[in-house]
Amino acid sequence: MAAGKNAASALLENKGFLSIDADILVHNILKEPAIQEKVIETFSEEAKKQNIELSNADGTLNRRNLGAIIFKDKKLLEKQENIVLPEVESRLKLFIEQNKGKNIILNATVLYKIPIIKECDAVLFVTAPLLVRLKRAKKRDGIKTVHILRRFWSQRNLFSKYKNSNADTVKVYNIGNLKMLETNIMEFLKAYTF
Fold this sequence. Notes:
With about 190 residues, the protein is mainly α. Helix content is about 55%, strand content about 10%. The protein contains 9 helices and 4 strands; from the N terminus they run H-E-H-H-H-H-E-E-H-H-H-E-H. It has a two-stranded parallel sheet with strand order 1-2. Helix 1 crosses helix 9 and helix 2 crosses helix 5 (about 75-100).
């Protein structure tokens, strides 16, 4: 979260890659009535315990409140992922199929949890120092520090999870300077024939 994967994706798009953002896919999936219904049903008891309302006034899912629930508990996060990740994989596969022969970026934080990672030539793991990420997330998302830190905690040790996925994983640092990030990405690209 807030490490700069979107900035890296944009830089690669400028080099001719096509990109699909799994976060946007998740947001769109969570807008679908059948998925909303399943998510609200799955987490309604926990929401009640925590005195959190999962539905907005118009009946749609309140994603921010859902996040406040699921990022507190690994098992709850896994429940949400079991609902959403199969849908994400299906749409990523469709995107790849529709763009066969082109260089594609799957912009996804938890790609290691989706079997499609086995089809990837390489993983570019973008990271940044904790305080830089915290500052970016507060500015971008406008949510409480405690909620950001819970998300950070849920995403801890991601690099080792990618290394254990058997995907060719390269770590790139993004300390805030886009020119330096671009230089690091260009070094990554030199190692691969795309």
